[in-house]
Amino acid sequence: MTFDSVEHMVTEATDLEHSARIGATMAGEPNQTGEIPGGPAKMASRNLQVRYGDKQALYDVSLDIPVNEVTAFIGPSGCGKSTYLRCLNRMNDNIDICHVDGSVTLDGREIYAKDQDVVQLRTRIGMVFQKPNPFPKSIFDNVAYGPRIHGIARDREELNGIVLGSLERAGLLDEVRDRLDAPGIGLSGGQQQRLCIARAIAVRPEVILMDEPCSALDPIATERIEELIMELKAQYTIIMVTHSMQQARRVSDKTAFFHLGHLVEHGATSEVFENPQDDRTKDYVTGRIG
Amino acid sequence: MAVLIAASSVAILTTVGIVLSLIFESIQFFRQIPFTDFVFGLHWSPQTAIREDQVGASGAFGAIPLLVGTLLISAIALCVSGPVGLMAAIYLGEYASRRFRATVKPILEALAGIPTVVYGFFAAIVVAPMLRNSGEAIGLEVSSESALAAGLVMGIMTIPFVSSISDDAITAVPESLKEAALGLGSTRSEAIRNVILPAALPGIAGGLLLAASRVIGETMIVVMAAGLAAKLTLNPFEAVTTVTVQIVTLLTGDQEFDSPKTLAAFALGLMLFVVTLALNVTALRIVKAYREQYD
Amino acid sequence: MTEISETQSRVAARLARRHAGEKRFKLLSLGAVWVGLVFLGVLLFTVIGSGHTAFLQTKILLNVTLEETDLGEAGEGGQAQAIAGANYNGVIKRTLRAVFPEARSRSDKRALYRLVSVGAAYEIREAMMEHENPVGTPVAVWVTASDDVDLIIKGTVPRTAPADQRHLSDQQMNWIESLEKTETVKARFNTTFFTSGDSREPELAGVLGGAMGSLYAILVCLAISFPLGVMSAVYLECFAPKNRLTEFIEVNINNLAAVPSIVFGLLGLAIFLNAFMLPRSAPLVGGMVLSLLTLPTIIIAGRAAIKSVPPSVREAALALGASPVQAVFHHVLPLAMPGILTGTIIGTAGALGETAPLLMIGMVAFIVDVPTSVVDPSTVLPVQIFLWSDIPEKAFVERTSAAILVLLSFVCLLNLFAVYLRKRFETRW
Ligand SMILES: Nc1ncnc2c1ncn2[C@@H]1O[C@H](COP(=O)(O)OP(=O)(O)OP(=O)(O)O)[C@@H](O)[C@H]1O
Ligand SMILES: [Mg+2]
Questions:
Q1: Pick from A183, C256, C364, C373: most CB atoms within 10 A?
Q2: Which residues of chain C have pLDDT under 50?
């Protein structure tokens, strides 16, 4: 991460609309710019470049994520979807060889700014991973983990409330109410993934990042999660990576298509699937490449 | 092929040899000294048994002071190598830059390659006097050969051992758990303390048991720095003696082979062998079960 | 929305404390690394600091004239035998008295004689025997000074120290100073340390006896453990059926690797010495005991090395009509050799530093002669260190450190060689 470039970007990116319009004029096509027409952007990236060592993984990605909607990232394997997603809560900071250039904003504030606290950022942007990864602790302790380290609950009672509320919202409470002390690993795969969602929302984030949250699950469990995502979007801005085009169509409002590190096309899900502008998108959504 | 099989069975033969020689001599020893005197006796002064008329004099071969001394020194050593080794593994694995790790790790591992007699010399010449002097400075009486000196140096010696085992245990914890903790906004140290270490605990515990068995069987450092006095004490500033020290002392003089004094060394050896074997078997079980948990 | 901002303010309230904790934890763990590094540094610093002086030894230049009256009986060997049998103690005393005629009284004379080592007589003898015609002509010989003089000249003991600490009287100090003025006393490279065995006199003691003992013991150890280890590894990795017995052998090997070394010494004492009646204190027995210690290391390293050879190598050899044994010994084993050697060398380095088990089989005696075979009584380098470390004399303390330096450099060289082997053959496929 080179900070001078970020600082440089921060000044420019404060006026989101301005920079978005620059993107629009340069790219020409309205749905190949960063801007998505419609609701206000919760998060936005401008000219995001990511390198792992010498290998460039993302080129110049500019994209707006609208608030309280589900945005899906699709694209062939290795095209940089996860990389992009992990830039949004700075998970890539943990990888030595990863270099990020460009700008990412949350509510208009640069998240790569020097004074941005990563710990606090991650309370605002939660993450759910591909493989369910509950801690080797009880169900209760799993969900209580975030509130505990951040000191979100004032007392035991409030903590109970947060844990039960989160489990409830994740649609898991009825299944585990009588065994909150049982180990989280003992649950089924789908339940574990919902536990991970409950764990993420227990810190009351505004954005939830999900990297292929259903790819390790069977169809029934997948359906439960998809329903859950659609319920959750009323409260959270959700960004998910998926390899299933059906899932993107069912769940998401907006879709972004990545190819070989480039953001090729994005827009309303129905547009991207039914009326793709780019040949690569067309080939991908019709199943000819990927 | 028969040659190959024969070669492989040398390992078994060695074990059998160890067990037979230890047991055979120990049986002879226990013919002369009652087993209970040996295991529960509070006094160890084998010198008195040299004289014909005192063979088997009651209480001369009580192993308790040696056991207590061994445990005291081992505990001190583990108190050093446990935390230091673990924390060093954490720094090298989680915080250090690649270059730092690449240069420092081999240097730390060199600690394990230094012959123990060198540590013994260092403990006796540098650490023990230093402890005595600093003890004097604060009005504490530290004997010139002390459990503390031997234990500290032994602890340093086992740092690389503990840290390489901790490293294994920590890397065996799936990356996804660490990511989950960081993704929830943990700082690195919170992720390590709350998630990684608890998950790695069985592996680390197994490693500590292995380190314990090392430390219990270590000889030269204690011979050179812990002393010979078979005092029954838990005071780390006093000289204590250990099982291994007594084996060496009993066997390095000139004496006939079947005096109880010589045979006692084998009884001690048997005890040492059984204890370390038990520790190892348990430790290897724990470590193995732990590895399988994450495979 | 208020819920979120409330949460955020609670999170923010704790951030500073948490980051401070993070910093503390990081520093603490860095501290742990430094504990190890500093200890290693202090250890090396101490050993080098106190040991480097032992590589110098003070010598005194004497102009010795051998008189006819000093010669021994000529006998059959003629003049040569007469020179060899001369009374060199007398010669030294006379020479010293000539240099310092002021030493008259008995005690003065005795103090004077004590400036040179008891080994000086042998040195003069040797010089005379090499000389073509020594009788009557003055010959200049650098003889070894006594250890007390040595410590003063090298500055290990300060000249201002009280007489009982420097073990030298004021008069002796004066003599030393006048020798210095004529530049006939000098610290020179200590060859004795590398060319002789143990001695009661520190200035005559050397590590060669221990080093040769170590060499013989290691050779015996390798001669036994290398073939056995390689064959075991080959059998267990390539041919052994997966059954109870194999499993038992494996468990056995793993446990043997963790048995305290002193227990192997007990085995050596009870079986090799008492049952097989092999000689005490011999490198032969030492090597046998060490081989049992290194065997598990070699087997484990050997199996890992064999496992890393791709199975295709063996299959190709089998396809070309080699028998299974041929395939392994001619094709797999050569490829696995670097790995096996690396493990063997590391095991050897460990065996080289091993002390405790050798104490059990009597390699702890005071032995002056350098061993010339594997059955000669001998000691080994680490045991030599142990023996010297017990002697309070200052001159032995520096020699102990120097012997440690010698041992450490051997161990270090072996390990570097192992690292080199590993690097050199790392990515063959
Ligand atoms: N930690 C890393 N180190 C080096 N290269 C990486 C790393 N992570 C990802 N990459 C590289 O970056 C590129 C993008 O990877 P990314 O994981 O973002 O792809 P993806 O679109 O998520 O693929 P998939 O659908 O398979 O998950 C790939 O070429 C990958 O090899
Ligand atoms: Mg991915």
A1: C256
A2: none
Q: Residue A242 Cα, ligand 2 centroid: separation in angstroms?
A: 9
B183, A122: Cβ pair inside 8 Å?
yes
DSSP for C68-109 reads GGG-----TTHHHHHHHTS-HHHHHHHHHHHH-TT--SHHHH
Residues C284 and C155 occupy one common structural domain: no
Q: In chain A, which among 190-209 make CB contacts under 8 A with chain C?
A: 203-204, 206
> Are C293 and C389 in the same domain?
yes
pLDDT at C43: 94
Q: What does each C-alpha distance from A104 to A24, A101, B83, B158 come to in angstroms?
A: 17, 9, 41, 48
The CATH number linked to B275 is: 1.10.3720.10
- Containing domain of residue B279, as a range? 2-290
For residue B230, what are its two tokens?
């078979």
* Interface predicted TM-score (ipTM): 0.90
Residue B295 lies in a domain: no
Residue C264 in domain: yes
Cβ-Cβ contacts under 8 Å between A and B: the total is 61
Of the bound ligands, which one is closest to the alpha carbon of residue A243? 1
What is the Cα–Cα distance from C22 to B190, expressed in whole angstroms? Answer: 8
pLDDT at residue A25, as a whole number? 31
Question: What local confidence, expressed as pLDDT, does residue B274 receive?
Answer: 92
Residues in C touching A120 (Cβ below 8 Å): 8, 11-12, 15
- Is C6 inside any structural domain? no
Q: Per the domain annotation, does B208 fall within a domain?
A: yes
Q: Give A 152-171 residues with CB within 8 A of chain C.
A: 152
φ, ψ (nearest 5 deg) of residue C158: -65, 145
Average model confidence (pLDDT) for chain B?
86
Same domain? For C126 and C269 the reply is: no
On the question of pLDDT at A37 being above 60, the answer is no
Residues in chain C, total = 429
Domains in chain C: how many in total?
2
Helix (H, G, I), strand (E, B) or coil at A40: coil
